[in-house]
Amino acid sequence: KQEVTQIPAALSVPEGENLVLNCSFTDSAIYNLQWFRQDPGKGLTSLLLIQSSQREQTSGRLNASLDKSSGRSTLYIAASQPGDSATYLCAVEGYNAGGTSYGKLTFGQGTILTVHP
Amino acid sequence: KAGVTQTPRYLIKTRGQQVTLSCSPISGHRSVSWYQQTPGQGLQFLFEYFSETQRNKGNFPGRFSGRQFSNSRSEMNVSTLELGDSALYLCASSYTGEGGYTFGSGTRLTVV
Fold this sequence. Notes:
The structure holds two protein chains of two kinds. Chain A is mainly β. In chain A, 0% of the residues lie in helices and 57% in strands. In chain A, the strands form two sheets. In chain A, strands 2, 4, 5, 9, 10 and 11 form a six-stranded mixed β-sheet that branches. Chain B contains no helices and eleven strands. Chain B has strands spanning 5-7, 10-13, 19-24, 31-38, 42-50, 53-57, 64-68, 74-78, 87-94, 102-103, 107-111. In chain B, the strands form two sheets. In chain B, strands 2, 4, 5, 6, 9, 10 and 11 form a seven-stranded mixed β-sheet that branches. A four-stranded antiparallel β-sheet of chain B has the order 1-3-8-7, with no helix packed on it. Chain B is globular, with a radius of gyration of 13 Å.
């Protein structure tokens, strides 16, 4: 059974800092890994999708890396801003006997990020 | 391009009642997945539909059911509501159900 852990559970930083959020998963046989952002009471916004054959993805100030062999992913946020304050969720999609997971993402508990002005 | 639309946004129901939630995927997406989010358990997978067929199911009781229509819109039904069913219910759509999921804003269900 896939388990996803995110560290730290909460993070509070001053504006402008570079920061790293960590995600680990127990089963390295994953199809892909996706990072999401969730604002309070809202749905999930996709940030980055890393296919299992890729090592990293970048979008603006965000960079995510994937190391399947060690079961780890990191999300790097450069020059943090107050608008980055949200919960960040890591989710992995694995395989079932049929060769795909058919829509099943396994999520971590998230990292609550607060960026102070 | 319209996103994933979930209706209603908020619901208040009484224990024992049943409820139906709706999800309209992005145009062209044929896969719809449903998730339950609670403070204690986080995000948990309920089920996934593709071309009107349920292909995957999570570990939820039979009170939770769903269906998908020919236009890919999906509904989720919860019967005999319990207090513990209070949660944010999210749906996600993708072209095939393999990666690249887009989530809706969710339906907040409160059972009293």
